[in-house]
Structure formats: structure tokens, C-alpha cells
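User: Let's play a game. I give you a shape written as C-alpha cells, and you guess the letters that built it. Ready? Here's round one.
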């Protein structure tokens, strides 16, 4: 049953990621991977927050916890797209945006996860 929950959650997360990335390209253009940065930062905030809440604060089934944390958030966030987009920027000679993507993604995702965890602990 865990696999079914993870699969359904993964589908939900992937569709949400697609919608956000597509909309971000329309809003901000495609010279920088804003959509991927956004989903990864939001996903990092949510996994920090929800992992603590679902493990420490409220009692939920293992199936639901895996469906949310592994399925939805795993499908929502994407390290592989981040990697490909960064390599594409490098191949285009856009070294500033490539470096910015790496530093912003790693820094903001770690900060967001920390803030999510801290917020969950505070409530």
C-alpha cells in the first residue's frame, strides 16, 4: 500500500512542478531556471516543516507519511532538472547564471529546510 501512496503522491507532485515551472517560464522567461529554483526551495521548506510535524506532532499512518514526504514532495522537487539546467547554462557560456543557480539553489534550499523545521518545532 505504501507504493501506491508514493506513486499517487509522486504524480500529484510532478504535475504541480510542471504547472509551476511552465507558469514561471511565462512570467520570467527562460534565461534562468526560476521555476526549478522555486519548486526546490518551496519543497525544501515543506519537507523541513512536514517531516517534523508528521513524525513528532501528529499521528498519521506510515502510508500517508510516505505518500506526502516521498511521493508528493519527491515528485515536486527535482535535483536532476536542476543539474541539467545548470549544465545547459554552462554549455551556453552563461557562467554567471550557472554559478548563481548552484549557489542560490543549494543555499536557499538548505535555508528553507532549516526554516521549515524551525517553524514546525516552534508551533
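Assistant: Ready! My guess for every position:
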Amino acid at each position: 500500500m505504501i507504493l501506491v501512496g508514493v506513486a499517487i503522491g509522486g504524480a500529484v507532485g510532478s504535475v504541480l512542478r510542471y504547472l509551476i515551472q511552465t507558469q514561471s517560464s511565462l512570467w520570467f522567461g527562460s534565461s534562468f531556471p526560476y521555476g526549478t529554483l522555486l519548486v526546490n526551495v518551496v519543497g525544501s521548506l515543506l519537507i523541513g516543516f512536514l517531516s517534523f510535524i508528521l513524525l513528532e506532532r501528529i499521528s498519521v499512518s506510515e502510508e500517508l507519511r510516505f505518500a506526502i514526504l516521498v511521493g508528493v514532495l519527491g515528485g515536486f522537487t527535482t535535483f536532476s532538472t536542476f543539474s541539467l539546467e545548470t549544465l545547459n547554462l554552462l554549455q551556453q557560456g552563461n557562467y554567471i547564471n550557472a554559478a548563481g543557480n548552484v549557489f542560490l539553489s543549494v543555499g536557499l534550499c538548505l535555508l528553507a529546510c532549516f526554516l521549515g523545521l524551525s517553524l514546525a518545532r516552534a508551533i
